[in-house]
Amino acid sequence: MTQLIDTFGRGHDNLRISVTDRCNIRCFYCMPEENVKFEPREHVLSFEEIERFVRIAAGLGVRKIRITGGEPLVRKDLPTLIRKLSAVPGIEDLALTTNAVLLAAHAQELYDAGLRRINIHLDTLDRARFKKITRRDELHRVLEGIEACRRIGYGPIKINAVAVKNLVEPDIVPLARFGREHGIEIRYIEFMPLDAQGLWLRDKVLSADEMIAMLSREIGPLEEIPDRDPRAPATEYRFTDGIGSVGFIASVTRPFCLNCNRLRLTADGKVRYCLFAIEETDVHGLLRGGAPDEAVADAIRSCVGGKWIGHQINSQQFVPPPRPMYSIGG
Fold first, then answer.
1. pTM over 0.85
2. Rounded mean pLDDT of the chain?
3. CATH T-level assignment (fold) for domain 14-328
């Protein structure tokens, strides 16, 4: 039973941990192409500090961990951290989100360390459009990483695709067909105001409803999967012909804040109660300064206690977070 219940009655048992803000691609909706300012390496939490934080959080009821970045696979010796976190009492689910550029080379070692669930960021199967979005010509390596995970036996494997209007419409259906062919769930994520360059506009959001209509027209009818976890960020659908499923993370058009069960730990040791939060709770100094576990636990409780009812993307009051996505953690 989680002890992390906010003032709106939401329990928190899901922690996303960014292990680095560095990345080996430059998606235009996340990072500038050049002159990106990263945290100095000495400010980034060590594996031992992350493990200690997770042990404390597990004692407060956290059961699910997702490792993110930046790109987590640019962090040296990541399987060592996976092995440490897999052994923490109380942790029942451990997953990784990656752009998969380095995945083929590390998939077996990560699996041997205890990783089973993986989400891969991939917006398009078209090489030219991939290069336009990421500013890197690495699609072949991403596909090699996906195939490596399928061969080794990861499951489930999911693909996350960011849906930017007037750009990715040609990719929605091919991605779903790729998923149906390979037993992979495609999750479409509405474009959110988290880029480093202020490019987001409401009319650049390709909505979940628009994508459902496209898939239903081009592939076949979809039906919402019943009895899903209401706290999961994605609303999941299956094709009525029985082949494959897709999910939609519709943060803009269908906010799911009232069911949110997630906390975030940034690479530099800040706890956040929301991807869009303005405030942060600093645990870096506590962890590095040798503060007692209860002081760290109090900081986590304080963060949850101050959680707002939800972001206000669709209102005049919305203020983008002061950090871009790569710095917060995907």
1. yes
2. 92
3. TIM Barrel (3.20.20)
